[in-house]
């Protein structure tokens, strides 16, 4: 049986059938050229590009016609996090320039686990948990791109892409009906062991004590087939991924060239890849201090308000180091290059004012949580570190919902409670002796008033009769409030 026939049989069994060859490319290549002819140059200038296959040809393709671009998201959690923002903003810039985008959730590959960059095997995934995560991520991705469009429009930036064209996919759609026999005939017969074994992620694991499972070893082929499937059925010509995904992206380009029987071209690794498709990798971000980007005290910074409050999200960006802030403004906001330059000049004249960090925090919080979320976060910041202003109790509770710095108690446990005991029990200070030491040095506050000695929290201390702000030192804050009765 010829491979092309096997491909056709598999494609017909899949949820979305193959597009006839004559029509397949017309969906991408006959459309009008997008409005932004310098998109690739702009992506490179803003810092999105670590590497790309045939960059000159890629730039020309983006100028010539509408392309379809995809990036993969692993369903290892039910929410997107700050670490995803680099891919998401890269995709959004393609979308804004008039290209089609496909955020792809690894509903199938997530069951196996990507071995890239890992020294040991992942724990086996729970199928029902992965399914729930896929559903949550699909909703989260649609919400992000809807919010990003509003964020752009609020800044007078028109988007050429149409949100109704947004296709969020799970690769389980096509892998679930792909038998092992089909896989070996269609994909395995075109995979070359020397190429697969030479990948750094494979070589590292093979020399380790625990070695590498066949499941992990085959992961690169499943990802390669994703690119081929999206190319054949949706006219997808560009894959975006982190720089650690370069080998997997090239595997997809090689598979497309072989299965399509097209005239292939050589890439820097001297393998034959598709002449019609491209790969683009983004840099792996770390902070100036060497920490992994998107982590706060070792914990992920989530885009879901139930996991990370708008206030905590805002504070993460406020704490950006000076060496990173300009880079982040270019990557995670739509602020123009000229305005970023102006912001940085003002910031560098008075770094202690953290002007650039405040702009970054405001922009990214509005991008993710919209204007209302940004305003709540800014008000909560003033409440915590300045004055309450006109912020209501409901706004405080909303801005800090899910944040460990907000503790809601029954009236009997709050009114009359010793202040230093509250601070100790809820993690504001390590001990009562630390609270007493801060009190003596005028470093302990209730509603920004100094508390020198321990005392009971009175009803008069509660703002609006509902909450009080306790602060230890300059930046450790706890909001204690009354829990609403059922």
From TrEMBL:
GO terms for biological process: mitochondrial tyrosyl-tRNA aminoacylation. It catalyses: tRNA(Tyr) + L-tyrosine + ATP = L-tyrosyl-tRNA(Tyr) + AMP + diphosphate + H(+). Signal peptide: none annotated. InterPro entries: aa-tRNA-synth_I_CS (IPR001412), aa-tRNA-synth_Ic (IPR002305), Rossmann-like_a/b/a_fold (IPR014729), S4_RNA-bd_sf (IPR036986), Tyr-tRNA-ligase (IPR002307), Tyr-tRNA-ligase_bac-type (IPR024088), Tyr-tRNA-ligase_bac_1 (IPR024107). PROSITE patterns: AA_TRNA_LIGASE_I (PS00178), S4 (PS50889). Its EC number is 6.1.1.1. GO terms for cellular component: cytosol; mitochondrion. Transmembrane segments: none annotated. It is an enzyme of class 6 (ligase). Keywords: Aminoacyl-tRNA synthetase, ATP-binding, Ligase, Nucleotide-binding, Protein biosynthesis, RNA-binding. SUPFAM superfamilies: Alpha-L RNA-binding motif (SSF55174), Nucleotidylyl transferase (SSF52374). PANTHER family: TYROSINE--TRNA LIGASE, MITOCHONDRIAL, TYROSYL-TRNA SYNTHETASE. Belongs to the class-I aminoacyl-tRNA synthetase family. This is Tyrosine--tRNA ligase. It comes from Schizophyllum commune (strain H4-8 / FGSC 9210). The lineage of its organism: Eukaryota, Fungi, Dikarya, Basidiomycota, Agaricomycotina.
């Amino acid at each position: 049986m010829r491979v092309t026939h096997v491909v056709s049989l598999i494609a017909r069994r899949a949820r979305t059938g193959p597009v006839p060859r004559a029509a397949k490319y017309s969906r991408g290549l006959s459309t009008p050229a997008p409005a932004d002819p310098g998109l690739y140059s702009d992506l490179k200038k803003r810092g999105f590009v670590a590497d790309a296959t045939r960059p000159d040809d890629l730039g020309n393709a983006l100028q010539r016609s509408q392309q379809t671009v995809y990036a993969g998201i692993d369903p290892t959690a039910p929410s997107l996090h700050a670490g995803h923002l680099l891919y998401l903003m890269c995709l959004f810039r393609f979308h804004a320039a008039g290209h089609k985008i496909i955020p792809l959730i690894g509903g199938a590959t997530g069951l196996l686990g990507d071995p890239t960059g890992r020294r040991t095997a992942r724990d086996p995934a729970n199928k029902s948990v992965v399914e729930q995560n896929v559903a949550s991520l699909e909703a989260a991705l649609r919400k992000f791109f809807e919010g990003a469009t509003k964020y752009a429009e609020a800044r007078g930036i028109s988007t050429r892409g149409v949100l109704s064209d947004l296709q969020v996919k799970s690769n389980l759609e096509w892998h679930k009906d792909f038998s092992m026999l089909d896989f070996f005939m269609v994909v395995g017969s075109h995979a070359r062991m020397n190429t697969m074994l030479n990948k750094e992620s494979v070589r590292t694991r093979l020399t380790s004590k625990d070695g590498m499972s066949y499941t992990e070893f085959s992961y690169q082929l499943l990802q390669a087939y994703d690119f081929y499937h999206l190319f054949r059925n949706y006219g997808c010509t560009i894959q975006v991924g982190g720089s650690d995904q370069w080998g997997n992206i090239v595997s997809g380009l090689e598979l497309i060239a072989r299965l399509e029987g097209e005239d292939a071209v050589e890439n820097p690794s001297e393998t034959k890849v598709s002449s019609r498709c491209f790969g683009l990798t983004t840099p792996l971000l770390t902070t100036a201090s060497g920490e992994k980007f998107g982590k706060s005290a070792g914990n992920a910074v989530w885009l879901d308000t139930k996991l990370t409050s708008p206030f905590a999200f805002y504070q993460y960006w406020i704490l950006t180091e000076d060496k990173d802030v300009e880079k982040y403004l270019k990557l995670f906001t739509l602020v123009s290059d000229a305005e970023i330059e102006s912001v940085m000049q003002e910031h560098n004249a008075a770094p202690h004012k953290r002007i650039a960090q405040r702009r970054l925090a405001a922009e990214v919080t509005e991008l993710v949580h919209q204007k209302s979320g940004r305003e709540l976060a800014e008000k909560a910041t003033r409440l915590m570190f300045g004055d309450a202003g006109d912020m209501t109790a409901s706004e405080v509770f909303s801005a800090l919902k899910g944040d460990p710095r907000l503790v809601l108690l029954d009236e009997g446990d709050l009114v009359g409670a010793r202040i230093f005991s509250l601070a100790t029990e809820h993690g504001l200070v390590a001990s009562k002796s630390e609270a007493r030491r801060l009190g003596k040095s005028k470093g302990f506050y209730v509603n920004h008033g100094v508390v020198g000695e321990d005392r009971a929290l009175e009803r008069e201390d509660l703002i609006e009769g509902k909450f009080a702000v306790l602060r230890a030192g300059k930046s450790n804050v706890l909001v204690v409030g009354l829990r609403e009765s059922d």
